[in-house]
Amino acid sequence: MSPGRLRVRVRRVRAVRLGPRSVAALVLVSAVGLASIAWPFLAPPEAAVNAHAQDAPWLFAGVLVLLVAVVAATISESGLGPKAVAMLGVLAATGAALRPLGAGTAGLEPMFFLMVLSGRVLGPGFGFVLGSVTMFASALLTGGVGPWMPFQMLSMGWFTMGAGLLPFPDRLRGRTELVLLAGYGFLAAFAYGVFMNAAGWPFLNPDGSDIAPDPDAGLAGNLARFTAYCLATSLGWDTGRAVMTVVLTLALGTPVLKALRRATRRAAFEAPVAFETPTGKTG
Predict the structure, then answer these.
(1) Is the sign of the CA dihedral 175, 181, 185, 187 positive or negative?
(2) Spacing of C-alpha 202 from chain mean position
């Protein structure tokens, strides 16, 4: 048959698909992460966990082991080729290098906009892996290794994965897509700050503080204390992060999205090419 009578059909797929083991590991680590920040709101005053609050950060560092399991399971189930793995490394290194550029000034962290755009193009599976690996690399680069690191990895994984779950990834383009991503980045930047606050807030010294957790305050009382803690300690940083994410997304989103999509095609993130005859049969 003449080559001119063949049609090429390429079926687009996600860069990293979440298989059964990946989903199980992700659900487990998410459940542990949520439990580790929710217990001050739910534990009764007589609960034994309140007596060990100051020891908990080191116990919660076990989340890091579960995060490694998520990354390993996701990569092993996805069948990533060497080009795709290289792209993961390049994006993680770029994000890690961007983070310290503004982290010391009013929370201006340019890495967040790159995570939003990468998650959008490369899908939720790749997004979670990329967010976690980027934060891990950033911690090593800046010397920020500590009990808080697993929570940073988890929250950044969620942040980037969420961008991959936004609707119409293959159809929405142009200004509308940028507005969608900017809106998500704005809200998710605050959510990231709230999650990190919740990870550290339970370990404040309660003596003489109106914003530290109080086992006797109940759910409503502790929610009020936590809200006051967020407003007093991190609102400015979270606002700076959110605004910078919006500005960079709107200003640089179009060329960065094009570059990421071009790199995705070259890295063979798409399914193998299938040839169709005029009758619709594949060859």
Answers:
(1) positive
(2) 23
What's the sign of the alpha-carbon dihedral 170, 174, 180, 183? positive
pTM: 0.79
Q: Residue 78: CB partners within 8 Å, gap ≥ 6? A: 15, 16, 17, 19, 125
User: Sign (positive/negative) of CA torsion 31, 33, 182, 141?
Assistant: negative
For residue 133, give both structure tokens.
Answer: 């690996």
> What are the structure tokens assigned to 231, written together?
């407003």
For 203-254, what is each residue's pLDDT tens digit?
A: 777 766 788 887 777 788 888 889 999 998 888 889 989 999 999 999 999 9
Q: Which amino acid is at 134?
A: T
**Tokens linked to 61:** 């560092």
Q: Where are the alpha helices (DSSP H) in 12-110?
A: 20-42, 56-60, 63-78, 82-102
Residues 6 or more apart in contact with residue 179 via CB below 8 angstroms = 250
